[in-house]
Amino acid sequence: MSNDHVIKVEGLTKMFGDFTAVNAITFEVEKGEIFGFLGANGAGKTTAMKMLIGISTPTSGKANVAGFDVFTNAEDIKKNIGYMSQKFALYDDLTVKENITFFGGIYGLSRKEIKEKSAVLIEELELEKAANKLVGSLPLGWKQKLSFSVSLLHDPKIVFLDEPTGGVDPITRRQFWEMIYKAANQGTTVFVTTHYMDEAEYCDRVSIMVNGTIEALDTPKKLKERFKTDTMNDVFLKLARG
Amino acid sequence: MKRFIGFIKKEYYHIFRDKRSLFILFGMPIAQIMLFGFAITNEINNVDIAILDHSKDVDTKEIIHKISASKYFSIDQLIEKESDIETIFKKGKVKAVLNFEKDFGKNLIKDGEATIQIITDATDPNTANTISNYVNAILAQYQKELNKDVTIAYQITPRTRMVYNPELKSVYMFVPGVMTIILMLVSAMMTSISITREKELGTMEILLVSPLKPFQVIVGKVFPYIFLSIINAVVIVLLSIFIFKMPVQGSLFLLALESILFIISALALGILISTISATQQTAMMISLMGLMLPVILLSGFIFPISSMPLPLQLISNIIPAKWFIIIIKGIMLKGVGFQFIWKETLILVGMTVFFIGLSVKKYKIRLE
Amino acid sequence: MSITVSNISKSYKTVKALQHISFNVKEGELFGLIGPDGAGKTTLFRILTTLLIADEGTATVTGFEVVSEYKQIRNSVGYMPGKFSLYQDLTVEENLEFFATIFGTTIEENYDLIKDIYVQIAPFKDRRAGKLSGGMKQKLALCCALIHKPKVLFLDEPTTGVDPVSRKEFWEMLKRLQQKGITILVSTPYMDEAALCDRIALIQDGKILEIDTPNAIIKHYPKQIYNVRANNMYQLITSLNAYEHSHSVYPFGEYVHYTDKRTDFSPEDLLRYLESRKLSEIEIEKTQTTIEDTFMELAK
């Protein structure tokens, strides 16, 4: 395995009874890459991602994430990845600082590290005034930025983002993507699952899943050229309609 | 009317497609009755006791024999000295010790009076109380036999007779309580949950933005649960009659009417709960904490109201279940007619009207 | 006028959900409320569908006042709330039948109105609504909202959480409904859907930023936007932000949308600057303004 491939998947399959949710998918993700993992609801995205983050055991195939095998070292994978979803992010009834301390603690950071990191994080997000406020009282955009930073607290090799910017206002969304670019620039691999096609445009490479298989995998630019369209949305429409 | 029927039809789909709730709805009454009828009981059976007999004469032997012959007690051991009493209680097996005074028989004949001490383990006060009552009953019986041949008149002996439930069967006490709980649960909790479910789903918004009148929505929601509650009440009564051979003394018709009255008051409470809760979870919490606990603790179902401190006695008056329990105990156990329970019925009617009025007033035609 | 909104405000405790909102929707118009989550779209919908009462201001729907004449409004509008409000345990057909009955009509009576949409879900009519895909649920919810032939249709974020194919089909359906004379007020957080409306209101933090046709809104944008890309996205953004003449820098898919403060901006200057920052594979070219650019400029 090349050292540059932080995710390496080969023929990964997941069956639920007779139903094949994920059908022998194969792909690689490089270090520092922003990888878009697209598909409609029910296409198998979530099932595939659950296998990659070590909470669901594949039926067959091979997968190596952050240097660990998903069959044998699922626990090590969990320590080396970050996860953020739009649905669950932070505890609304804890303050910004309490949330940071809690999540830092979960990932085994020392008290000193937590203190240092939360100071940096709060400064970068310009949250000084809100540090002792309940997260529930923050605007949605701030919450999402904070939640992304928290998922990076333990310097994971890969961070998995599940529809991170749906419904956020356009400016906050850009700020969010700037944060993602920054993380990627520092060598963190970013794995974005989404069914929002405009989120896909921001990724270095995207894969599009249809009915459990990967139907296309390339840079947004090349995909758009191949399907002779202007947007990823149209690429998706063409793919899904066959 | 067509709209209303369409609404009811939908409610029936909800109820009969939710297999788990349906199972709880009909399984629970049966389980509760069985539990209270067979497992949880106030009766005592084969309680282990110890005897400290300082006298060891004919009379004490006779009394001991009578006690051990009864099905309530079995004599675990005989002890010799006072200091053993505490040791024996600490072991926990023996629940009572009978201490006959020295020269028991002699005193009885000489002075016509002898003393026996009944020491009970009151860590469980109910049992202790029952034990001492049963021992007293056996002693009284013996005394009566002694006096049979003696012609001394004018002796006054207090006699206790348990009426209406002479065998002191606890299931008779529990049936009215269980019935109250079940009706409360089905009517209040299920309605409040089913209304808040529509709020959670967002379908309430559509119902409000439709020509359906709020009144129709409410009645449509409540209607199926009236039926379910009645079915439950019937099941409970049938179970108690046929499995526990409980005699229903009074009029079944009156019982049915009073039950419907109580069901309606519980439904009104359910609607009231739904107006103040936004989620099914809150509705359930409020129903459990706000209705079930008072019904179990303060209605006189388990703990007699007369032995509660005064403030709690006063609070118990505002609990509809208290009045309903009085009413159905009267009908089922005493066989009384309406003339004896009209007061309680009137109170219940008053409460029902109040709850309905309040919930209609509280019901929102808008979202806030 | 089918809908008139004048000076509507609404607050929840400390949050000002709507602040002095005014606009009109003409009969037969497809009007879009475009804004992110928390902009106040749902609150406005609830006020117009008589579910909430505004703190101040007035509004009418089909000529009826939203507070005093709420009953008339409830008889003549169709409403599809944010989260496809269907009974999950009822089948497709039972849902539709239920909503038809409570509006005092039958499926047959208005079948021609929903026919186009219903035929797509008809093969699943015996399936429980909870078991449908997002796109199917959305179509069923629309059928339910249409079954009583409303004059005005309120659709609160009908395309959120729905895949692109269903989204596209949904907008095609709306266009057809509009041709049948139904006034439609639709809200969406997707800026790319704005172009499909006759007129739109851009809304954020309870305030309307602008109301006009999508084309006019784009034309109002004061600057020329350039697409910029380079080998490293993050360094490109930091460099552009540090550039003294930059007016706005927003990542936009694989490009960065850049505008310059100067009126006589020359891309060559920028190219040289970026090269001096050690960036390579630089591309700079003019691009079309989008609704999203306008939105950000107005919200800045």
Which helices and strands appear, and what pairs or packs with what?
The complex is a heterotrimer of chains A (242), B (368) and C (300).
Chain A lengths: L4 E12 L2 E12 L3 E6 L5 H8 L7 E6 L2 E2 L4 H6 L1 E5 L10 H11 L4 H14 L15 H12 L6 E5 L7 H16 L3 E6 L2 H4 L4 E6 L2 E6 L1 H7 L5 H10 L1
Chain B lengths: L1 H16 L1 H21 L7 E7 L4 H12 L3 E7 L3 H9 L4 E5 L3 H8 L4 E5 L4 H24 L21 H32 L1 H6 L5 H29 L9 H25 L3 H19 L11 H7 L3 H15 L3 H25 L6
Parallel strand pairs in B: 1-2, 1-3
Antiparallel strand pairs in B: 3-4
Chain C lengths: L2 E10 L2 E11 L4 E5 L6 H8 L7 E6 L2 E2 L4 H7 E4 L11 H11 L8 H11 L12 H13 L5 E5 L7 H16 L3 E6 L10 E6 L2 E6 L1 H6 L5 E5 L3 H10 L3 E7 L2 E6 L6 H10 L6 E5 L3 H9 L1
Parallel strand pairs in C: 3-8, 3-9, 6-7, 7-8
Antiparallel strand pairs in C: 1-2, 1-4, 4-5, 9-10, 11-13, 11-14, 12-13
How do you describe this structure in short?
The complex is a heterotrimer of chains A (242), B (368) and C (300). Chain A is an alpha/beta fold.
Largest sheet of chain A: 6 strands, mixed
- Please mark out the parts of chain C with pLDDT under 50 across 5 or more consecutive residues, or reply none: none
How many strand segments of chain A? Answer: 10
Structural class of chain C: alpha/beta
Report the average pLDDT across residues of chain A.
89
CATH architecture of chain A: 3-Layer(aba) Sandwich
Strand content of chain A: 25-35%
**How many extended strands of chain C?**
14
Proportion in β-strands of chain C: 25-35%
Q: Into how many domains do the coordinates of chain C divide? A: 2
* Number of H/I helices of chain A: 9
Please provide the ordered H/E string of secondary-structure elements of chain A.
EEEHEEHEHHHEHEHEEHH
Give the termini distance of chain C in whole angstroms. Answer: 32 Å
Runs of chain A in which pLDDT lies below 50 for 5 or more consecutive residues are: none
Mean pLDDT of chain C: 92
CATH topology of chain A: Rossmann fold
Total domain units of chain A: 1
Keywords:
heterotrimer; B: 368 residues; alpha/beta; 67% helix; C: 300 residues; Rossmann fold; Alpha-Beta Plaits; six-stranded mixed β-sheet; four-stranded antiparallel β-sheet; 10 helices; 28% strand
